[in-house]
Write a structure and sequence with these properties.
single chain; 494 residues; alpha/beta; Rossmann fold; Alpha-D-Glucose-1,6-Bisphosphate, Chain A, domain 4; 2 domains; seven-stranded parallel sheet; seven-stranded antiparallel sheet; 16 helices; 38% helix
Length: 494
């Protein structure tokens, strides 16, 4: 007899603040499932969930806190992992899984869904062995458990994908150990989410261990080469016979966002083949995961969408008082964000932004902007000769000199995408938001460098960028104040 969604409608999600859990949270809310999230810091999670989602305090290392979280729950997602917590993460994971499983059994939970790690055979890494031990402990609780074992997960923001992009973007020549030839069966994050959602309702008796992966069996090196191909980069990998996990992890810590201890655990795991054995996934689920090429392409597209959907400055500028910063790294991107406060409402503050470029200029150093356009022409770029279609209004797709309007919200936001010749991709975004006594104008320049050449380009022209960006936001602010006094927004140009 299979499981019915209606038997226990409430779903519990643990790990909602993590990479997979955060994305699963959005999926479950979109599906309209009655949802409860358990967090050690519920006050931090509450602003990120929908109004219908419950948030309760709970910690798998504190058995006494689990009863309330699991009360009335039919399906519980266990997406907790302690690798970043310290050297004793394996023991912490073991105790947490045991406490959670026992509490779930007492609460009458019908099913636990757990995402583990794919891998088998002798010499399994400590990290993968711990992930699989957690699944075994959950099954021993007596609660029917579906454990999905995944290989490398490809998705923007994921640890493995970010490690790949950092290595490929920053190193034209890579000294690589033997583990780059280890076979894997990567799977896209979207497909992982599909399988996690389906696992809650699948008709299956008892506990199951299900290997999941995409259709392509590739090495880590092939994965890096495919990423390089899609980014238009040429990369050379030189194999060396001896490069220990410790040395590899130290090197990863220097050139990637992964710090050394976590990098060592990941590298040790990469020495183990992670390929699907059996056809359990195909028999249980309708989902048919996409291949590596499509998974990487979607990760790059989704990264742009996620990056644009949030304020690009959020990662570095938090709290009630917006601030400026220049030349900071946000993930793989380089960001310059400037703010100016003006004693005018947002619509007035946005007026000079709406008319930027063309004959009215850029509010600072217009001669330098014209020079940049002239330098662009010999390389086949658009230059600055296109101007604007309309001097007063902008719509998505309009050109503004050597920029293209990517997004516009009346009196609030304008985002431009660069069409000049660059070793990478660039955006320029302007926002006007209400603030005590008036408005805040935020100007954000974002550069996504293509490899080492792109980074060298950014830092080589940084002194000029810093001067221009600082002068621009001040010029826009002065033009906004002048607009309040009745002058045309483009007539005040410092």
């Amino acid at each position: 007899m299979g499981m019915s969604r209606d038997a226990h409608p409430l779903t519990l999600l643990t790990g909602a603040s993590g990479y997979v859990g955060g994305r699963l949270l959005a999926r479950l809310e979109t599906d309209g499932r009655p949802l409860r999230c358990m967090s050690r810091r519920p006050e931090e999670l509450r602003p990120r969930v929908g109004p219908a989602t419950q948030v309760v305090h709970g910690d798998v290392t504190d058995p006494a806190s689990l009863a309330e979280a699991l009360a009335g729950v039919g399906t519980a997602y266990y997406l907790v992992h302690s690798m970043a917590a310290g050297q004793d993460y394996r023991e912490a994971d073991r105790r947490g899984a045991r406490a959670f499983g026992e509490a779930a059994a007492r609460a009458g939970v019908r099913r636990i869904v757990y995402l583990g790690g794919l891998g088998s055979g002798p010499g399994l890494s400590a990290h993968l062995a711990s992930r699989q031990e957690v699944g075994r402990v959950l099954r021993e609780s007596g609660v029917p458990t579906i454990e999905l074992r995944a290989s490398i997960i490809i998705g923007s923001g994921g640890t493995s994908f970010e490690m790949i992009r950092a290595l490929v973007d920053r190193l034209p020549v890579m000294i690589t150990p033997r583990w780059v030839d280890t076979p894997a069966q990567p799977i896209a994050i979207e497909d992982v989410l599909d399988l996690l959602v389906a696992a809650a309702d699948v008709e299956a008796e008892g506990s199951r261990v299900v290997d999941v992966g995409g259709p392509d069996r590739v090495s880590y090196g092939e994965l890096m080469r495919e990423y390089a191909r899609q980014r238009g980069l040429r990369r050379t990998m030189i194999r060396v016979p001896v490069l220990t996990p410790r040395l590899s992890s130290l090197w990863l810590g220097l050139v990637t966002p992964v710090y050394a201890r976590v990098g060592r655990e990941l590298v040790e795991g990469l020495r183990n083949p992670t390929v699907v054995t059996g056809d359990e996934a195909a028999r249980l689920f309708r989902a048919r995961p996409r291949g590596v090429r499509e998974a990487i392409a979607r990760a790059l597209v989704n990264e742009d969408m996620e990056f644009a959907a949030t304020r690009w400055s959020d990662a570095l500028s938090s709290g009630p008082r917006p601030r400026s910063f220049g030349g900071a790294a946000v993930g793989s991107r380089l960001v310059d964000s400037r703010v100016a406060r003006v004693p005018v409402p947002p619509a007035t503050a946005f007026a000079p932004i709406r008319t930027i470029g063309g004959t009215r200029g850029w509010y600072y150093a217009n001669a330098l902007w014209r020079l940049r356009g002239l330098l662009d022409l010999p390389f086949g770029g658009a230059g600055a000769r296109r101007g604007r279609r309309d001097p007063d209004n902008l719509g998505v797709g309009d050109h503004v000199d050597f920029w293209r309007v990517e997004a516009v919200e009346p009196d609030r936001l304008l985002r431009l995408r660069a069409e000049m010749t660059l070793p990478g991709r660039a955006w320029l975004q302007f926002e006007a938001e209400p603030a005590p006594g008036g408005s805040v104008i935020r100007q954000t320049a974002v550069f996504d460098p293509a490899g080492v050449v792109g980074r060298l380009y950014w830092y080589a022209i940084w002194p000029v960028h810093g001067m221009v960006f600082r002068g621009m936001v001040r010029g826009i602010a002065r033009a906004a104040v002048a607009a309040r006094a009745g002058a045309a927004p483009g007539t005040v140009t410092p």
